[in-house]
């Protein structure tokens, strides 16, 4: 088993299992045993097991694992290096976990380019001030962040260091207003789209987009193609595609490969126009309220932008989700860490921008909004709190 400090041997036939060391021991062991069982069953060689984000899994032990070949990881890394024009002169500031495809991807890119990687975590955890000080002291040129981390930098009004060439932003929706605030502070942020199944990003804004403050297009990288199927879902074909899934279920261990003729159907709706990816949201985000259709991800974006307009730190302290309703089928609820007065201001601003049926019908005040190591909200855990 590979630890968080162990460097991945890209050219060996050994398999590696990269799991979050902070998982409860029982869950860690269940996932580790799953990976061992399936790699033996499928006779896998030269693969790395990585867990998906697990934001909807009902328990950590039932999180889906993804088997990525080392060739897939190197294909992705080569394409990203080409896109970012990365060389041995670059210095990556690393704050994404080794056990996540975003963090591992940085390490592989750096190895292929001969670039340097500097850990910018504080005691193994994200800290905006520490990250900022590392960027300056180490003269970092490249980095990768999730939107939550960009929020923190904007909330502190940090001005980007002049040595920084680009920051790839992925792992969640990157709101336009947050993008504009980051760019106004000089941060060279490049929106991207990717997933564990593709060994990181497959579409990213280009470096020329940094000459403008307009939200940029995400062009497909050299190793990937995409299309929309008849149901409106994005399908991806890439040299970096995963080999198979593995999961613990009530019926025992399971592994499967969902690709059809080399194409992987994602859970995202979207379009591909002239090599540019336009993502419209996940299928699970489309719900009906009293017979009217809406997109929860879009509503969440509206709420976050309203919160951001009031205070840069507020978007991390309030969210919304759909809850079952006997009368309407589904209804919108707000979840807040803020005071009643602060929440009321955000809800009022939000309600002015949405249709009547999309307005919140209840506000929950909680002490904690559970998040993953990458800042993604763990929706199953949040629902259990309510």
Automatic annotation (TrEMBL):
Set out the biological process GO terms recorded for this chain's protein: fatty acid metabolic process
The AMP-dependent synthetase/ligase domain, residue ranges: 50-206
Recorded hits in Gene3D superfamilies, A to Z, give: 3.30.300.30, N-terminal domain of ligase-like
Ligase keyword on record? yes
Tell me a Gene Ontology molecular-function term this record carries. medium-chain fatty acid-CoA ligase activity
- Keywords for the protein's UniProt record, in alphabetical order: Ligase
This protein's name: O-succinylbenzoate--CoA ligase
């Amino acid at each position: 088993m590979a630890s968080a400090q162990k460097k991945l041997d890209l050219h060996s036939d050994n398999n590696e299992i990269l799991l979050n060391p902070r998982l409860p021991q029982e869950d860690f062991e269940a996932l580790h045993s799953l990976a061992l069982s399936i790699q033996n069953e499928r006779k896998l060689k030269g693969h790395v097991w990585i867990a998906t984000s697990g934001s909807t899994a009902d328990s950590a032990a039932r999180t889906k694992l993804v088997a990525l070949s080392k060739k897939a990881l190197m294909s992705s890394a080569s394409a990203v290096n080409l896109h970012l024009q990365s060389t041995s002169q670059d210095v990556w500031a690393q704050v994404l976990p080794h056990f996540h495809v975003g963090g591992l991807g940085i390490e592989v890119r750096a190895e292929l380019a001969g670039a340097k990687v500097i850990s910018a975590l504080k005691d193994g955890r994200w800290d905006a001030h520490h990250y900022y000080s590392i960027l300056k002291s180490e003269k970092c040129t490249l980095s990768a962040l999730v939107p939550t981390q960009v929020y923190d930098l904007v909330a502190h009004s940090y001005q980007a260091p002049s040595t920084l060439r680009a920051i790839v932003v992925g792992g969640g929706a990157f709101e336009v207003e947050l993008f504009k605030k980051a760019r106004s502070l000089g941060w060279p942020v490049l929106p991207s789209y990717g997933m564990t199944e593709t060994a990181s990003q497959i579409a990213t804004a280009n470096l020329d987009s940094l000459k403008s403050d307009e939200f940029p297009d995400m062009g497909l990288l050299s190793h990937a193609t995409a299309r929309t199927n008849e149901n409106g879902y994005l399908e991806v074909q890439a040299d970096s595609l995963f080999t198979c899934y593995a999961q613990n279920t009530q019926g025992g261990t399971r592994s499967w490969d969902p690709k059809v003729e080399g194409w992987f159907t994602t859970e995202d709706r979207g379009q591909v126009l002239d090599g540019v990816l336009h993502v419209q949201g996940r299928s699970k985000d489309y719900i009906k309220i009293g017979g009217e259709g809406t997109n929860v991800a879009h509503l969440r974006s509206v709420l976050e932008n309203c919160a951001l307009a009031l205070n840069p730190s507020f978007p991390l302290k309030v969210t919304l989700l759909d809850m079952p309703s006997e009368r309407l089928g589904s209804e919108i609820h707000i979840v807040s860490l803020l005071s009643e007065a602060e929440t009321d201001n955000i809800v009022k601003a939000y309600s002015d921008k949405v249709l009547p049926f999309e307005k919140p019908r209840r506000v929950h005040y909680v002490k904690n909004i559970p998040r993953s190591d990458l800042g993604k909200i763990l929706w199953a855990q949040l629902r259990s709190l309510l």
